[in-house]
Amino acid sequence: MTSLYASSDFAPLSPPPRLLMGPGPINCYPRVLTAMSTQLVGQYDPVMTGYMNDVMALYRQVFNTNNQQTLLIDGTSRAGIEAVLVSAIEPGDKVLVPVFGRFGHLLAEIAQRADAEVHTIEVPWGEVFKPEQIEEAIKRVQPKMLAVVQGDTSTTMLQPLADIGAICKAHDVLFYSDATASIGGNAFETDAWHLDAVSVGLQKCLGGPSGSAPVTMSDKFVELVRKRHHVEAGIRDAHHVDALGPRIRSNYFDLPMIMDYWGEERLNHHTEAASMLFCARECARVHLEEGQDAVIARHKVAGDAMLAGVQAMGLTPFGDLANKMNNVVGVVIPDGVHGEAVRETLLLRFNIEIGTSFGPLKGKIWRIGTMGYNAREDAVLHTLQSLETTLRMQGFAMPFGAGVDAALAVYNEASSNA
Ligand SMILES: Cc1ncc(COP(=O)(O)O)c(C=O)c1O
Known about the structure:
14 strands, Aspartate Aminotransferase, domain 2, 40% helix
């Protein structure tokens, strides 16, 4: 067969050196990139299973939990969401989803596909829920599970979760959170906040690429999903006895089978995505070596500096700033400024990516992230300076250097208090 293309038609990979200052993905920690290019070992090599055990131990620390069942789902963050929801939900189960942005809608949609009876409550984008609002809905709906996003990147808001766990416990409701966008850059306490299941991704404050979804599950959650434990025919031994509950509808996201693979039996399920596991392991090592409090403080000062910078430039931040995530700010696109033209100039002339938005905020705000490796003073200053020049090119007048000066002042203040 003659090929339409010669191999020389395809250039070697050589992406431009972009500074990724959007809502994720971000540039990876260099150590994570090195980890990703590590040579493979076999799936059951004791070195590999040792790395899997390391990952479990490391992510218990990242999640602040003693949960034995802390492991990776292969796939992007929504793979973690899907694994939790499809494994826990039986058709007709009631699931309550407080929606305060795009990713609340995603939880509702995935729960619907698992045939849950989904109930949503909503606040306008840019706000979060008070615990009383969630408790009132729990009393009314009496769900099996509450599924709530911690940080919704679409609006930049961070839903406080500390008081929700006690409410769920009092009403015997499973408490699940998607903390993909917030973990690492904002406090997250799985055990202290009484969470039953949490799923995240690497591509935000953990400083990795997307493609691996760490999850953690409480004993109560594990007991519940194990009631649906069915082992695949081709790998089943005489000692495998099916549980009585209905079989989980997804093979790939069947948490009991995945736990068998990560557990002592090492019962084959998928082939672990070793390169992503190496990344996930290194993300956690980088994070824990710097120290959780120090990483959160670094995200806080970077986020405060970016916020102060855009405000000093005469731009308006979006949403309730008291509940903003540390790691991303929404910026209202000023009248008369072409939002996409600004993003294009930043990307193509300054090599800086900032984010657009979705749904009701589409075309109305930019989202500027300061996450993981890019929660750094130089990244904040370059972004603000480049944004200023770009806005000036669009005819938006502002005091020269005000954004950078305001950001520098935040960093100076933080270092004098350190
Ligand atoms: C809060 C939240 N949940 C889920 C996702 C989906 O992640 P992925 O694209 O990795 O599947 C994102 C991505 O931005 C997110 O911010």
